[in-house]
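Reviewers asked in the last cycle whether our approach scales beyond single polypeptides. To address this, we selected a multi-component target totalling 528 residues and predicted its structure end to end. The input consisted of the following lines:
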Amino acid sequence: MEDSQKPDLMDKIVSLCKRRGFVFQSSEIYGGLRSAYDYGPMGSELKRNLMSEWWRFMVHSREDVVGIDASIIMRPEVWQSSGHLANFSDPLVDCKVCGERFRADKAPRKAEGEDAPITLGDKGRAKAAQEKLTEAGVKLQRDGSTLNGAKAGAAGYVCPNCGSPFLSDERRFNLMFRTSLGPVDPIGDVVDIVRKAMAEGADDKALRARVEGALAASSVYLRPETAQAMFVQFLNVQQSLSLKVPFGIAQMGKSFRNEVTAEHFIFRSCEFEQMECEYFVPPGEGPKYLDYWMNERMKWWKSIGIKVDNLRFRKHDDDELAHYSDGCYDVEYKFPWGWDELEGIASRTDFDLKAHAAGSGKKLTYFDPEAVDPETGKPGRHYVPHVVEPAAGATRGVLAALCDAYDEEPADAEGKGARTVLRLHPRLSPIKVGVLPLVKKDGMPEVARKVVEAFFGAGVNAKYDEQHAIGRRYARHDEVGTPYCLTVDTQTLQDETVTIRYRDDRRQERIKIADAVDTVRKALTETT
RNA sequence: GCGGGAGUAACUCAGUUGGUAGAGUGUCAGCUUCCCAAGCUGAAUGUCGCGGGUUCGAUUCCCGUCUCCCGCUCCA
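The resulting structure, written as structure tokens, was:
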């Protein structure tokens, strides 16, 4: 059943998500919006629960990490200093022959004047391309699906798809969402500029540069990661709480990236949710804390019920590492399409704080009165802390939790009892307990409603449910991962007990109504 | 963005060689039912993804567009 079933596992999960109110496509009634998803009643609970678990583990269960919640829009200089404005701008080029769009810096190199044969998928395409080029004044000889006679141009590279040297100019495609802040009208400025430039006969390149300049003046960007705010607010946080290194700043929230491709349902989308922590340590101690956080973070993923066999670390190769990083590991999950990233844990040296210090002209250093200055030998040392960053994807976590919890049980010999069940960790479950009157009469609904009230009062998300036969209600709760169902029956009316039915094995026990809240609450606080 | 596949009821899908659609599941109501999608009776639901074209007539043919899936490309 291993890999042969894997492809439709995603389909089943997507279908369940919609049917049971976990995830809907954004703007669906208008035809849907690419790569944007809405979390429904069950999904929003699940995501919220997952994120609270992260917060509890990272912030509330330790002394040395504090939280912040920064704004999504920040000054453009932040992204200048962080490198996002430069590094997130990939030079993209379109091939005029096959239409391929590719990154100039990753294309096959070819010196100017070198032969550049063009190879299309088949004869027909080659012929069409040949005709198109002839119209454009370029004559090439065709040999099967290959066109010969072209020479590489000044660009220094050719199309990675077909080998053609006929390419558009390089264009920067920024992965950050740009918008403008304030009641300015950048389009008005652009119109003026274009009008003026056209009057002066400026060429495309000059025009582009001018428009770009006009836009840049009023541009702000939606954050492509939550991390930068924690560097920018490093001093405020450290000083306001008198924190001593090592300490961390944690943040959860939305980030935005104009990804070229969205894929695998909610796995990669333009708007996504992150859970990041920047942990500041003395210089030289990055590797040590990298180890430490790898350990901690893996513990956390296991603690929310993700199966050990579906988790692993992947070390980044040297050529994959950012230039400032001296070590990075991904926590990967075995998704239906293969291993993929849930979280990156990186040792980032002092790159970020130094970059913002340089960019802002502010000193972002830490003073440790107890340390000894290595240069003077005197007590007290100023230094720029190094950073270890565990950065997890919350929306990816949700998908991993769903994939991991999804299970189908076959029917028994009599063809009964088949079910789909989400074996979510109870703390992630959207509904903690379903309260069900066995039948809709004899005062059972009234009793059940009282039980629900008790859970409401205790802050446990409970759901009253009387529609349909009892078996169907259990099945429905299995599908959304409700770990416990309490059923009110005739005996309840006599002795104030209910049956508690366990999702995972369908076992039933009788407990007192008076103990119900504590029983469920205890199960929820148990750590695995 | 490129190549391939696909969009029909809430879900899974059938169907119409062009004459405005059907099944199963689910949903709703009633009866029944004391424990795992039971049964009986009845009911609702679709501008056949969206827009345009051809046609007396389009869900069906053509064009455009949006969205999803697979591969490529990209990806803190």
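Chain A has 16 helices and 27 strands. We regard this as preliminary and will revisit it once experimental data from Aim 1 are available.
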